[in-house]
Structure formats: C-alpha cells, structure tokens
Automatic annotation (TrEMBL):
It holds the Pfam family Ada_Zn_binding. Keywords: Activator, DNA damage, DNA repair, DNA-binding, Metal-binding, Methyltransferase, Transcription, Transcription regulation, Transferase, Zinc. PANTHER family: ARAC-FAMILY TRANSCRIPTIONAL REGULATOR, HTH-TYPE TRANSCRIPTIONAL REGULATOR EXSA. This is Methylphosphotriester-DNA--protein-cysteine methyltransferase family protein. SMART domains: HTH_ARAC. The keyword S-adenosyl-L-methionine does not apply.
Length: 189
C-alpha cells in the first residue's frame, strides 16, 4: 500500500473537519486512550499533542491501539473500497499533475467508464470533482500557511487555468481565495 502525501497539519485539518474523503487512507490514534479512528469520526476531538497518524491499519493495531466503537475503522464497508482507496491515494499523491480519467483508469487497471461508475457509486462523486476538492483543500492549506500568490497556488495545486481555479474555489469554499486568506488572517489577529 502506498502512503498518502499529507503533512501532520493537513491530516489534523481533515480530522477536525471530519472529512470522509480520507477514510481508510490514514488513521488517527490517540495516545492517551489507545484508540484509533477514521478521519471522519464524529467523536470528541483529542488534544493535538496526543495524536499520532498511521497509514496502515496493521501498523496502528501493532502499536497497541484498539478500534473506536463509534466509527469502527476496522470494518470494510464495501468489497470495492480497496479499489476506490487506491484511486483516492493516486489522486492525492498526483493532484499537481494534469490528470484525465484515462490516466487514472490505467493506474488502477480498470476501464474509464467502469472506474467512474464504481467511484461515483462508492463516494457519490466523480473522480474529477473529488480531485478538485483535493486541490482546493491543498490550496486552502497553502493560503493559510504560505505567502504564495493566488496564481502561484493555482498552478501549484494542479489547476491548468486561473478562471477554473477561482470558479471551483468559490463553489467549494463560498468565497474567493483572497477572501479566504483574509478571513483566516483576521481570525488570528
């Protein structure tokens, strides 16, 4: 299994947001309770200092953690979930590249049509909309943590056109990248 390229801070943001997109790609382990969860778990959030992240369920269990009774991270929900996880891992690890459905399908050994149907069935989204959400998550992180311009961030996260970047950002975050950065900076002043 390939590890997902996310920093501790990015994984922390995903668990605070209870983001289902990352379920199965990493696990949140709480040192004080010795319990591990999915990123989307709705349980009360632990202190950041008490958290460790694991990419593999066997690793987290070997480290002595037991599964959360609420989110049941050890239970697979569908026989196709492993294929979908591989697709999502590929998208997260290659979000900067220009990706088309054919490239993704070749990566996981499926036809583009079947991949899109399966992915939509499991996630309620197309691979493209999922990839856009990953890119916007990355852009939001960069807006908060760097001084890169909006245009630099647009290309850094894999968008080919600034107009599409602004359109997708606004549709997912309900504001422009500049407004998002300003709002974040105002929250910490």
């Amino acid at each position: 299994m390939v590890n997902i390229n996310l920093s501790f801070e990015e994984m922390w943001e995903k668990i605070i947001a209870c983001d289902r997109k990352y379920d199965g790609l990493f696990f949140t382990a709480v040192k004080t309770t010795k319990i591990y969860c999915r990123p989307s778990c709705k349980s009360r959030k632990p202190k950041k200092t008490n958290v460790e992240f694991y990419h593999d369920i066997n690793e987290v269990e070997a480290a002595g953690y037991r599964p959360c009774k609420r989110c049941q991270p050890e239970v697979e929900h569908s026989p196709q979930i492993e294929i979908v996880r591989n697709i999502i891992t590929f998208l997260v690890n290659h979000y900067k590249q220009k990706l088309i459905l054919k490239d993704i399908a070749e990566q996981v050994g499926l036809s583009p049509y079947y991949l899109e149907r399966l992915f939509k069935q499991e996630t309620s989204e197309t691979p493209r909309t999922y990839l856009e959400k990953i890119r916007i998550d990355k852009a939001a992180h960069l807006l908060k943590s760097t001084s890169l311009t909006n245009l630099e961030i647009c290309y850094e996260v894999g968008f080919q056109s600034p107009s599409n970047f602004y359109k997708v950002f606004r549709s997912l975050k309900n504001c422009s990248p500049s407004e998002y950065r300003k709002e974040f900076q105002n929250a910490f002043e």
